[in-house]
Amino acid sequence: xxxxxxxxxxxxxxxxxxxxxxxxxxxxxxxxxxxxxxxxxxxxxxxxxxxxxxxxxxxxxxxxxxxxxxxxxxxxxxxxxxxxxxxxxxxxxxxxxxxxxxxxxxxxxxxxxxxxxxxxxxxxxxxxxxxxxxxxxxxxxxxxxxxxxxxxxxxxxxxxxxxxxxxxxxxxxxxxxxxxxxxxxxxxxxxxxxxxxxxxxxxxxxxxxxxxx
Length: 213
Hints:
Blueprint: H1 2-24, H2 30-52, H3 79-93, H4 102-112, H5 127-132, E1 135-141, E2 159-162, E3 174-178, E4 183-184, E5 188-189, H6 197-202, E6 206-211
Antiparallel strand pairs: 1-6, 2-3, 2-6, 3-4, 4-5
């Protein structure tokens, strides 16, 4: 429990620093924001790891991913439990850098949480599969609108399906899940909602889905 306490203390200190600088009108260094977000994610992961007896020292596969996600990973019953398990799985397997495997990683995370999303050939076509698995469309955003739309309030577990851009390396679209802090695909998108500069510049259409079953 010492590690969990240390993580929580670090998170509280970062939160106090953020709040203090905000109230004084001082600039907030990116390093403090990074510590705040990282410790928040770590505290959720550690809580889950203790509950499931997850072993972080186990052997990994050729991509550096853990292969055994611990006991009880498939016993989630409520939508909240399923989403929590999916998020932890996604964060546990996230790669250091984006490798274009967004749809696979999000799908495998949802499957690990007990949400049976089926595979599609292109990320931009995942909407119908999400709806079949119990997701509902929250918002449909037109090209050029940007993020976030004014009427959208993100919730942990939301999944975005972004349309591809013809004649670019991003022509098959993108899928990511909101982990409560960042949008995460096959990597934690620390630079924001858009996975790369092409998306950020062109701002293609996208839909956001939320699990309700």
